[in-house]
Amino acid sequence: MANSVDDIKSLIGKKGGVSRPNRFQVIFTPPSVSLLNLNPEVLVGSLVSGSFKVKNLINDPRDISLLCMSAQLPGRQITTADYIAEKQAVPQVQSIIDEDVTLKFMLTNDYYMKILFDNWVSGIVDLDSYRVGYKKDFAVDVVIQQLNQKNIPVYGVRLENAFPTTVSAIELDNSAENSIQELSVTFSYDKYEPEGPVSSTLSALRSAADLVTNLG
C-alpha cells in the first residue's frame, strides 16, 4: 500500500523536519605551528597591501568553520574475504576501512587557509631534511556536525588524530573573473566516532580548550 502525502508530511514533522546539507559546521584547532602567523614574507606583504593587523599574527581557528564551504560525514566499509565451506564460498569479515574526508575552504585575499595548511604540512614533514614529525605533534581531532535549522547539532563525527594528507592545487584562470578561489584539503585519521548532540557539543568544547593549550 502506497503511503499518502499526508503520511509522509506527518512523519517528517514528527522527526523534526528534513535534514539540510548546507546546515553544518567543522571544528578543530590546528597545531601551534599553524596558529602563529610569523612568516616574514607574509608580514611584509600585509604591510605593503595595508591589510596588516596585530590580531592577524595569531590565526583564529573559529574562522575555519566560517570559511569551510563543504565537508563530508565519512563512510565506513567492512572488508571481507571469501571462505570456502564445503561447496559454497562464504564471506568472512576481515577489517574496517574508514574513508578519508575532504574539506573545501573559501580563500580570502590574505590566503589565510592556504598559509595555515602550508604551515601544518611543514610541521608534518620538514621540507629541508624530509624528516617526519611525531604524530602527537601534528594530529588533531576534527569534529564535523550536522545542524538543524536552529544551528543545534543533531549528529556529529569526531575524526581521531586527523591530519592533512593532500592539499589540492589552486586553479588560476583569466576567464573566471566572477569566481571565488577554493582550497580542497583531504584528511586521514585513525578512526571516526559517531556522536550524538550532547557528545558532539562536548567534543567541540574540547577543541576550543585545545586552542588555549596550543597557545600556552
Strand content: 25-35%
What is the fold-level CATH name, i.e. the topology? Pnp Oxidase, Chain A
**Class based on secondary structure composition and strand pairing:** alpha+beta
Overall shape: it is: globular
- What is the count of distinct domains? 1
List the helices and strands in order. Answer: HEHHHEEEEHHEEEEH
CATH architecture: Roll
User: Quick one: biggest sheet?
Assistant: 7 strands, antiparallel
Rounded average pLDDT: 85
Radius of gyration: 22 Å
- The separation of the N and C termini measures 63 Å
Q: Considering DSSP H and I runs of 4 or more, what fraction of the residues is helical?
A: 25-40%
CATH class: Mainly Beta
Low-confidence stretches: none
Instruction: State the helix count.
Output: 7
What is the strand tally? Answer: 9
Tell me what you see in this structure.
The chain has 216 residues and is of the alpha+beta class. It has one domain (17-215): Pnp Oxidase, Chain A, CATH 2.30.110. The chain is 31% helix and 32% strand. It has 7 helices and 9 strands. The protein has helices at 5-14, 32-35, 40-49, 62-67, 112-124, 135-138, 197-215, and strands at residues 24-27, 68-70, 76-85, 88-98, 101-106, 140-147, 153-167, 182-188, 191-195. The strands form 2 sheets. Strands 1, 2, 5, 6, 7, 8 and 9 form a 7-stranded antiparallel beta sheet that branches. Strand 6 and strand 7 (153-167) form a beta hairpin. It is globular, with a radius of gyration of 22 Å. The N and C termini lie far apart (63 Å).
